[in-house]
């Protein structure tokens, strides 16, 4: 497995140590790998959400009140 060196804050290091000491993880590497998996999942979900909002939202991100106001204005113009 490739090795990477990173700098973290003392609080982050203490949190990693505590997670291992409490028995939740077998090693600090396991804690970091899970954190990276969660980060990657979050990043992918955010990209998916952005794609859905950009491509799939019929409202274009507008609220219902704005859509209703547009509908009413169009209805008045057509009458």
TrEMBL record:
Keywords for this protein: Toxin-antitoxin system
Any one Gene Ontology BP term: regulation of DNA-templated transcription
Pfam families found in the cross-reference section: ParD_antitoxin (PF03693)
SUPFAM superfamilies: Ribbon-helix-helix (SSF47598)
Keyword RNA-binding carried by entry: no
Protein name per its UniProtKB record: Amino acid ABC transporter
Organism ancestry: Bacteria, Pseudomonadati, Pseudomonadota, Alphaproteobacteria, Hyphomicrobiales
């Amino acid at each position: 497995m490739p090795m990477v060196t990173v700098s973290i804050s003392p609080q982050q290091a203490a949190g990693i140590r505590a997670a291992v000491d409490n028995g939740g993880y077998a090693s600090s590497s396991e804690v970091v790998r899970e954190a990276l998996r969660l980060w990657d999942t979050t990043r992918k979900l955010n990209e998916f959400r952005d794609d859905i909002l950009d491509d799939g939202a019929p409202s274009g991100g507008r609220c219902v009140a704005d859509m209703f106001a547009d509908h009413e204005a169009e209805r008045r113009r057509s009458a």
